[in-house]
Amino acid sequence: MADCLRPVLADLADFTAQAVPPTAVSPPLTNDEKDLQLDRLARLLVEDNAEALSLIDRLCQQDDGAGLRVIQELIYDLEFAQAHALLVHYRQSITDRLQ
């Protein structure tokens, strides 16, 4: 799985540097709110795929980067396990940037 994710993660690093316009006007999430929602998304990817679809759509409306959009595409392709693994790496990259 790691070999499959390497190119996706490399692309993700490139995408996060580019801004993607939001699809709807939503108030931006605070870092704490976003962390809580990402925790919830990680849990839902394992426990409740239907609700994960709804949550990723809402998160993508409020996020100006492409990182979550790559995860959204994987979810829509029904690749929930890969989306979960990518989300873990995405969250780590956010944590690393904030330090």
Tell me about this structure.
With 99 residues, the chain is mostly helical. The chain has one domain (2-6, 31-98). The chain is built from five helices and no strands. The protein has helices spanning 2-16, 31-47, 49-62, 67-76, 80-98. Helix 1 packs across helix 5, helix 2 runs antiparallel to helix 3 (49-62) and helix 4 (67-76) packs antiparallel against helix 5. The relative contact order is 0.19.
List the helices and strands and how they pair.
Elements lengths: L1 H15 L14 H17 L1 H14 L4 H10 L3 H19 L1
Please name the defining characteristics of this protein.
99 residues, mainly alpha, 5 helices, 76% helix
Uncertain spans: 16-22
Please state the average pLDDT score: 75
Strand content is under 5%
Number of structural units classed as domains: 1
Order of helices and strands: HHHHH
Main beta sheet:
none
Shape: globular
| Distance linking N and C termini | 28 Å
Q: Which structural class is indicated by helix and strand composition?
A: mainly alpha
Helix content: over 70%
TL;DR of this structure?
About 75% of the residues lie in helices and about 0% in strands. It contains 5 helices and no strands.
